[in-house]
Design goal:
The chain has a 6-stranded mixed sheet with strand order 6-9-10-3-11-12. Strands 2-1-4-5 form a 4-stranded antiparallel sheet, with helices on one face. The chain contains 15 helices and 12 strands. Helix 2 runs antiparallel to helix 4 (100-126) and helix 5 packs antiparallel against helix 6. The protein is of the alpha/beta class and 458 residues long. A hairpin with a 2-residue loop joins strand 11 and strand 12. It has 2 domains: 1-200, Up-down Bundle (ABC transporter transmembrane region fold), CATH 1.20.1560.10; 220-457, Rossmann fold, CATH 3.40.50. The radius of gyration is 34 Å and the shape is elongated. Pfam families: ABC_membrane, ABC_tran.
């Protein structure tokens, strides 16, 4: 994707800059000189005009043969850019597992493929010039011969013959220019197709403009919801759930059970295939996505912070927040003291990877950001994974403050973090196989009971 909007756009830009004026100039020259040739001698001009379809058909044949290679070249170039970006980002992991040589070999495979398709594309487009020269020279010889015969017959003066021959060369120059630019234009065409393949994609879901008149209370209902990524493979089937405002709903289950998909449907990253999801009795498909999503806060395992000051990161969900409100949110999230120990405090600049603070500290910052946004509904996804015990306790305390008075959906594999949930949903193959609070599910001694005991035995 990145390659389509960097290297492909650059290819199109270069092609337009280098070729547009030359092509316009060449076509104007071709039209004007052709008119002069016809004016001087219609018979000789007919020979020249008959050669133009031959030049066109030859060029079209070569371009048609080379076009697939230009498309493949653009694709492989995008693959190479993606490969480089991915492996530079994960370079430490490569070194850790000793995969440098394997990665290098894979890179050579991509570059060899790029060299192969690039050579074929350049070779085929390069054939056009020799073919054009052959046709031009042949036409020149035929016209010169016919002009000589007409001079001998007294039908043409030597001066007109000389002018005619010069005009033939004038016609060949713009044709050669257009032909030389054909390869560049072919490459640009392939890049344009890749760019428009993205731009022409339909919107993910239909956009309706009904705005929220009031803030939500947080009542959520899933009504006979079906969803599938592929028509022949349903993922969520006849899913029903009613959530009261302020309730904490925990979602557990094996990998692929549909936990994250359920949240994506609630956030309206996807639309349901069948059924409906309502919030405060309103079908979420009838709401403006922007207004609707503004009611949500998210704290994810992969805590995302952008390059900028800590204050700007905290204010991200509420641009109108005052400095005092930012500090209060940080205190509530147990991160104010840590921020004040940093050089620059709230003004410290986070680097691009946010690697100048720990994962747990990033999660505390995202909790503070969510508190400052004051959402009505919370999405918490593995927010206490991969942190030490002390930070986990701080995060859990901050989470409790964050969830107070808000409808919360928590995805967790660590069942110790969801024992206070109002309702725990156990998902398997896109369906609820168990539901209830922690004590009720343990008393049932079914899937949740086994999962809970296996975690604490380990």
């Amino acid at each position: 994707m990145l390659g389509r909007f960097t290297s492909d756009v650059e290819t199109v830009s270069n092609a337009l800059q280098q070729s547009f004026l030359q092509i316009v100039n060449s076509f104007l020259t071709l039209i004007l000189v052709s008119g002069m040739v016809i004016y001087l001698n219609a018979l000789l001009a007919s020979v020249l005009i008959l050669a133009i379809p031959l030049i066109y058909l030859s060029s079209r044949y070569v371009l048609k043969k080379s076009q697939p290679y230009f498309k493949e070249q653009a694709k492989v170039l995008g693959d190479m850019n993606g490969f480089v970006q991915e492996h530079l980002t994960g370079f430490n992991v490569l070194k850790l597992y000793g995969r440098e040589e394997a990665s290098q070999a894979q890179f050579h495979q991509i570059t060899d493929k790029l060299q192969e398709v690039g050579f074929k594309a350049s070779f085929l487009s390069g054939i056009m010039m020799p073919v054009l020269h052959f046709i031009s020279d042949s036409v020149y010889m035929i016209v010169a011969l016919l002009a000589g015969l007409q001079v001998m017959a007294g039908l043409l003066t030597i001066g007109n013959m000389q002018a005619f021959v010069q005009y033939i060369w004038q016609i060949s120059k713009p044709i050669q220019t257009i032909t030389q630019l054909a390869g560049l234009l072919q490459s640009a065409k392939s890049s344009l197709e890749r760019i428009f393949a993205v731009l022409d994609e339909a919107d993910e879901v239909s956009q309706k403009e009904q705005s929220l008149q009031n803030d939500l209370t947080g009542q959520v209902s899933f009504n006979h919801v079906d969803f599938n990524y592929h028509e022949d493979r349903p993922l969520i089937k006849d899913f029903n759930l009613d959530v009261k405002p302020g309730q904490m709903i925990a979602i557990v289950g094996p990998t692929g059970a549909g936990k994250t998909t359920l949240i994506n449907l609630l956030m309206r990253f996807y639309d349901v295939t069948k059924g409906s999801i309502t919030v405060d009795g309103i079908d979420i498909r009838d709401l403006s996505r922007q207004d609707y999503r503004r009611q949500f806060g998210m704290v994810l395992q992969d805590a995302w912070l952008f390059e900028g000051s800590i204050k700007d990161n905290l204010r991200f969900g509420n641009l109108a927040a005052s400095d005092e409100a930012i500090v209060e949110a940080a205190k509530a999230a147990n991160v104010d003291y840590f921020i004040r120990t940093l050089p620059g405090g709230y003004q410290m600049i986070m680097n691009q990877e946010s690697s100048n603070i720990s994962l747990g500290q990033k999660q505390l910052l995202t909790i503070a950001r969510a508190l400052l946004a004051n959402p009505k509904i919370l999405i918490l996804d593995e927010a206490t994974s991969s942190v030490d015990t002390r930070l986990e306790l701080l995060i859990q305390k901050a989470m409790k403050r964050l969830m107070t008075g808000r409808t919360s959906f928590v995805i967790a594999h660590r069942l110790s973090t969801i024992q206070d949930a109002d309702k725990i949903l156990v998902l398997k193959d896109g369906q609820i196989i168990e539901q209830g609070n922690h004590q009720e599910l343990l008393a049932d001694k079914s899937f949740y009971f086994e999962l809970y005991n296996s975690q604490f035995r380990s």
